[in-house]
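Chain A, query sequence.
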Amino acid sequence: MLQHVLRATALVVVLAGASTAAEYDFVVTNKTDDDVNSIFVQNGKVNNFKRVPSNGERSMTITLPDGVCITRIQVGFSGNEAVFNESYDACNSGGLDLIY
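Chain A, predicted structure.
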């Protein structure tokens, strides 16, 4: 009986560890007068975020659950309450061109 419990526990641990994530290269081109101070990826994360200066560009990587391409991206700007909040296809896009 104890042997069956240990096998079941080991199987649960293996299955829990099987969850994977996909990383996508992501370039933010900021063609605005304000710096980009934050980027939020729904159900994912930005791995190496750095502030994107006005009229600047930065490369970063986003991580999404395996098999997920479509997400929402929210971008916060300095000096302005404007927030970019749009659907984003990480599998078929290389980044964002921000203009306002």
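Residues 2-17 form the longest helix (16 residues). The chain has one helix and seven strands.
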